[in-house]
Design a protein that fits this description.
The protein is of the alpha/beta class. It has helices spanning 42-45, 75-84, 96-102, 125-135, 141-150, 154-163, 165-168, 174-183, 188-197, 227-230, 252-255, 257-281, and strands at 4-7, 13-18, 26-30, 53-58, 89-94, 111-117, 213-218, 240-245. Strands 1-2-4-3-5-6-7-8 form an 8-stranded mixed β-sheet, sandwiched between helices. The radius of gyration is 18 Å and the shape is globular. Residues 28-263 form the AB hydrolase-1 domain.
């Protein structure tokens, strides 16, 4: 289909990836990164079959959405504007995107549902991953990081990400993962802003209690395993379902697309049943 675009006043970009005649739900997919384009989710949204329209969301400064240099500092407002632009929104957010979602309490009144993928309830994942990286170093990354610190650029950020791919993927998924990273647009300015103003101090500001929530992660995710949510007492609620994707890493649809697609199908049925129940009460 020919892509359709929606822009918010803060510079967020919504791209319609798939329209569907069945279902009135709008699925918005928010990438991780930050500074990583929603193209990183293309392999995911291509395999999904649940009813509704599918949109890719790029916040200001994400990937190729670089119309405004300083727009990323208003990411929370841009995220709310994007969700408000469409009715019956289910937000599916990956990695840092999930952290942005949980840092935006206004979403609790706007969303029909929420899917959190390979993300965390606070910043404690960073120390754990940093220690893992120290114990499992990858040749060449330290030198690339030194160059990046001296003179950051999109090209160097991409090189570091590609070199770090073994942290994100299992051995079985590594070839596809490297090809994915090489194909993506990067924006180091958004990455730098988030590192200085968000990443290390992040803590979820709200916990969904009035909508169906699916939280999943690759069972072999070395960066942000599901354990952080499992250990969080405040996320132990009847409306929240946890799922480990077998034999998969930080982008679990790369290694196990079948289980990920079925997880979305099952979650979609839960949301639809809840909506039908609400209508029946009216």
């Amino acid at each position: 289909m020919k892509p359709n675009y929606l822009w918010t006043s803060s510079g967020a970009r919504l791209r319609c990836i798939r329209s569907a005649c069945d279902g009135n739900v709008n699925w918005i997919f928010l990438p991780g990164g930050p500074g990583l384009g929603s193209e990183s989710l293309r392999g995911l949204t291509q395999i999904l079959k649940m009813p509704g329209m599918i949109w890719h969301l790029d916040l200001p400064g994400d990937g190729s959405n670089t119309k405004t240099d300083s727009g990323f500092s208003h990411w929370s407002r841009a995220l709310v504007e994007a969700v408000k632009a469409l009715p019956n929104v289910i937000l599916a957010a990956h990695s840092t995107g999930g952290m942005y979602a949980l840092s935006t309490p206004a979403l609790s009144r706007l969303l029909t549902g929420l899917v959190l993928m390979d993300t965390a309830p606070d910043a404690s994942w960073q120390n754990r991953f940093m220690q893992f990286a120290v114990n499992h170093p990858i040749d060449g990354i330290t030198e690339l990081q030194k160059k990046y610190i001296k003179k950051p650029s999109n090209a160097l950020l991409k090189q570091i990400t590609v070199a770090s791919a073994p942290y994100s993927f299992t051995k079985r998924g590594l070839r596809k993962g490297v090809a994915l990273f090489k194909s993506l647009p990067f924006n180091y300015k958004a990455c730098e802003w988030s590192a200085k103003h968000f990443d290390s101090t992040y803590r979820a500001k709200w916990v969904p209690d009035n909508m169906p929530v699916l939280i999943f992660a690759g069972a072999k995710d070395r960066i942000i395993p599901l354990d952080f949510f499992i250990a969080s007492k405040k996320f132990q609620r009847k409306n929240i379902v946890f799922l480990r994707i077998k034999d998969a890493g930080h982008y679990p649809w790369i290694e196990n697309p079948g289980q990920v697609a079925e997880a979305f199908n099952q979650y979609s049925r839960i949301v639809m049943a809840r909506s039908a129940e609400k209508k029946g009460r009216r």
